[in-house]
Design goal:
Layout (H helix, E strand, L loop, with lengths): L8 H5 L25 H12 L5 E8 L3 E8 L5 H12 L12 H12 L5 E4 L2 H9 L3 E5 L5 E4 L29 H11 L5 E8 L5 E8 L5 H12 L9 H8 L11 E3 L2 H8 L4 E5 L5 E4 L11 H4 L2 H31 L6 H11 L6 H21 L2 H22 L4 H15 L4 H21 L1 H17 L1 E2 L2 E2 L9 H4 L28 H8 L12 E3 L2 E3 L17
Antiparallel strand pairs: 1-2, 2-4, 3-5, 4-5, 6-7, 7-9, 8-10, 9-10, 11-12, 13-14
Helix pairs in contact: 6-9, 11-15, 11-16, 13-14, 13-15, 13-16, 16-17
Length: 565
């Protein structure tokens, strides 16, 4: 299976030559226009374009006590210490220049090369760029007679500390997650991926917000056509605001009407790095703690970090339990409705008697019971999520007990139905990905309705429709059910069960990595050698066809206890 290099979905539907791009109200009108050398005119232009804002400050001063200058910045973006340090650099002459005559012609070069001890400084003459820098939180210094302004990266915005991600907690694994700061998130990736092949492409999306978006991948592993396709889809987005990475996901996914997510999101840097090492790309958005991973296949959404940090036997067992819980959460209520309503002869006699006695006095059919309990559980779940953390836990426990008991006593549902819904809810909690769990919860309702109408035949028909839809899905050209359909041997080693790490020498083939080798030949040969026993003095240990540490039984010590026997 190869990637199809095509125009993004948005570009295929809209001919860009026929659509007038909505420009930014101010900045686009001053594209390719330079600032005036007259300081007063430049300040008046900036004040007029930025409008009246109480937090906008223009601080006038003199460079070296001679040349008129002004600093423009937003005070909420810049700390007073940074502003004072910047002003001090301009206002005080360094000692080695005390007795030298500084002409205005040489002033710019002297300031840039000898006076300003800052790494985050650059010169700019374009009005649009200067305005954008001010709005991003940088400080700008204008000097009378100079045709370029000094831009300082003084932006200082409070941010929360790096903490354990709330949506992807693990027992064994790293405890750090992404935060809202894009620079901090990129640093977390750099920290874990210290290679010269790591690439970052930056873009600004949103006509008004100018949100920074970073496209991250590993050159030499990720397919260049995949990188170009993701970039094309992101650049094609023309909207006034990008408030979160979820906005990007809705624009660049292949099938917008499918309930199944086609792009994975994560708060974990280690998970993002692992995805890039498989040949995928990662999108980070400034202001969002969630990274997007593309392409995504169905098997990814029930895998966790602990599948790899634990030994393969334990990881495979946990993964099998999640797959079982996934199937349980999707089909168990509809199967229960179909059996009770249409095929009671399939139920064992003793159990059928228990169900009949429980349903005595319940005036509603089974399908109404299940739908009522499902809706009640979904409302309770949503209320628990939105309430404060201190109250939400108590409400979920009390709410389940009260609603279940009250429903049984009032005759709305029988006890077996309450147990079925409770088991289904627990099964849905076992799905690690929140967006995939929502898809399963949403599909339960039509499955219950069709099973209550047509019985087991309706359940099988619903199952066939879901499978047919999943088989038709693709994420950036990758079939959604791969590596199962179509089959890929290397990918199957890490799907339903996880093989040992040394049994997976190649990267998954469904993502078409350029470099497929994951393990070195020496590592594979090492595991094929006889295991060493360094502390077994009788056996010694032998490895790599050499005798290492094989010693005499007395270990060369005549006073050994072995010689006393």
């Amino acid at each position: 299976m190869r990637f199809k290099h095509r125009k993004p979905t948005i570009l295929r539907k809209i001919n860009k030559s026929k659509v007038k791009k909505a420009p930014d109200q101010i900045i686009d009108d001053y594209q390719n226009k330079s600032i005036d050398t007259n300081l007063n005119q430049s300040i008046q232009l900036i004040e007029r374009l930025l409008g009246v804002s109480d937090d906008f400050v223009i601080r006038r001063f003199h460079v070296f006590g001679k040349y008129k200058a002004a600093m423009a910045y937003f005070e909420n973006y810049n700390s007073k210490d940074d502003v004072q340090d910047t002003l001090k650099s301009f206002m005080y002459i360094p000692r080695h220049l005390d007795h030298e005559k500084i002409d205005k012609v040489d002033l710019k070069d002297i300031l840039f090369n000898e006076v300003l001890f800052r790494a985050d400084i650059k010169l700019e003459d374009q009005i649009s760029t200067i305005l954008q820098a001010i709005m991003e939180g940088n400080a700008v210094v204008l000097i009378d007679g100079l045709n370029e302004a000094f831009l300082f990266g003084n932006r200082n915005v409070d941010k929360r500390s790096i903490d354990n991600p709330d949506t992807e907690r693990v027992i064994r694994g790293p405890r750090e997650g992404f935060i809202e700061s894009l620079q901090s998130n990129l640093a977390l990736l750099r920290y874990r991926l210290q290679t010269t092949d790591f690439r970052i492409k930056s873009m600004k999306i949103g006509r008004l917000t100018k949100t920074n978006v970073a496209l991250c991948y590993v050159e030499g592993i990720a397919d260049p056509r995949l990188v170009e396709e993701v970039k094309d889809r992101v650049v094609a987005i023309d909207i006034d605001s990008i408030a979160d990475s979820g906005y990007l996901e809705q624009f660049i996914e292949d099938n917008h009407m499918s309930p199944f997510p086609q792009i994975q999101n994560t708060e974990r840097p280690d998970k993002a790095v692992s995805a890039m090492l498989e040949g995928k790309v990662v999108l980070l958005t400034d202001g969002s703690p969630f990274a997007l991973i593309a392409p995504a296949v169905f098997a990814q959404f029930f895998q966790t970090v602990e599948d790899y940090t634990e030994r393969f036997v334990m990881g495979s067992l946990l993964r099998l339990l999640r797959v079982l819980a996934l199937s349980f959460a999707l089909f168990f209520p509809s199967f229960y409705v179909a059996i009770i309503a249409f095929n009671p002869e399939l139920i064992p006699t003793d159990f059928a008697i228990a169900i009949a006695s429980g349903r005595a006095g319940v005036p509603f059919p089974t399908i109404m019971e299940v739908l009522f309990m499902e809706i009640a559980m979904e409302v309770l779940r949503e209320a628990t999520v939105r309430l404060p953390q201190q109250v939400g836990g108590a409400l979920s426990i009390v709410g389940v007990l009260v609603i279940g008991q009250a429903a049984v006593e009032a005759g709305f549902a029988n006890p077996i139905t309450v147990v079925v819904i409770a088991l289904t809810t627990i099964g849905s909690f076992a799905t690690p990905a929140y967006n995939a769990a929502i898809a399963l919860r949403m599909l339960r309702f039509p499955l219950v309705i069709i099973s209550g109408t047509f019985g087991l035949i309706g359940l099988m028909f619903g199952f066939i429709l879901i499978m047919n839809h999943i088989l038709s899905l693709k994420s950036f050209g990758v079939p959604y059910l791969t590596p199962i359909v179509p089959g890929d041997f290397q990918g199957m080693k890490d799907t339903i069960i996880r093989m040992p790490l040394w049994k997976m020498p190649k990267r998954p083939g469904q993502f078409h990595p350029q470099n497929q080798d994951r393990l070195g030949d020496d590592v594979i040969a090492e595991f094929n050698q006889e295991q060493s026993n360094p502390l077994d003095l009788q056996a010694g240990h032998k490895r790599w066809d050499k005798t290492n540490g094989v010693s005499k039984k007395d270990n060369g010590n005549p006073n050994s206890d072995h010689n006393r026997q």
